Amino acid sequence: MSFEINRTNGIPYYIQVRDALQDHFRAGTWNPGDRLPGEPELCRMFAVSRTVIRQALSDLASRGLIVREKGKGTFVAQPKIQESLVQKLTGFYQNMVEQGLTPVTQVLKQQIIPANARVASRLHLEPDTPVIEIERLRFVDDEPLQLVTSFLPYELCPSLAHEDLTHQSLYAYLEKHCGLMIARGIRSIEAVPANEYESRLLRVKRGAPLIMLDSVSFIADGTPVEYYHAVHRGDRTRFEVQLLRVRGSGESSDSSANQFDDLPPSGGFVLRP
User: Fold this and answer.
1) DSSP string, 101-131
2) Which of 85, 196, 206, 260 is least surrounded by Cβ atoms within 10 Å, i.e. has the fewest?
């Protein structure tokens, strides 16, 4: 794979350098976590000025593809976990397993508590109704990616209060042992800064960007089964949205818009190359 710059095609040099570096990342010349050569060495490799190299590196950094650490150097960033907003209701654990990744859950808290006003409202319960609170830190390949707290009505699955969820899916347990199959969910998403507690557990700086999800899951009859609040590391997570065209009133039923009707639902977490 070449480090040569085409000096006649009119494409700015920094873009060619940026794209060439991305090609080398994909090819494994430098893998995630590897330190890149310094600016003088990159200037020599590409036969361009330091200004060009700095522009290319700045663009890569803004895209989250490299990480600059003061006094240490520039490193290839870890690939981001990608989650679809049109998501299969299989849960984080199962999504990771399906992709050949190694998810691990550290259960930080698992207890029966009275539902506060917010939790009671989400689960359509009276305040102080017993709920199971489960706080989990989720890892992929030994790296913390998600901090999630789930609340479930105690009466729907009492055995869950004492079940070890370290190496199993919550949704799979609900289905197998409590007869509760999640049928649909409502989810909101927003960006938030990491507080001190979150930054310590997720190994990011306080104030670092996190992606916050609030979700309620229901069984087929409309009963809320789980309310959860989760934060994902913003530097390791990207969300993908699947868009489908809805046929307007002026379009015929055999319109080309129907080509989207049979698209399979996307979902789960996938590792971005």
Assistant:
1) --EEEEEEEEEEEE--HHHHHHHT--TT-EE
2) 196
pTM of this structure:
0.62
Residue 45's φ and ψ, nearest 5 degrees, are -65, -40
**What is the mean pLDDT of the segment spanning 206-212?**
90
Q: Is the pLDDT of residue 251 over 70?
A: no
CATH topology of domain 13-76: Arc Repressor Mutant, subunit A (1.10.10)
Rounded to whole angstroms, the Cα distance separating 213 from 186 reads 10
**Residue 197 φ/ψ, nearest 5 degrees:** -65, -45
Q: In what order do the strands lie in the sheet with 209-218?
A: 103-114, 130-140, 143-153, 224-233, 209-218, 184-193
β-pairing, 73-76 with 66-69? antiparallel
pLDDT score recorded for residue 123:
96
What is the pLDDT at residue 19? 87
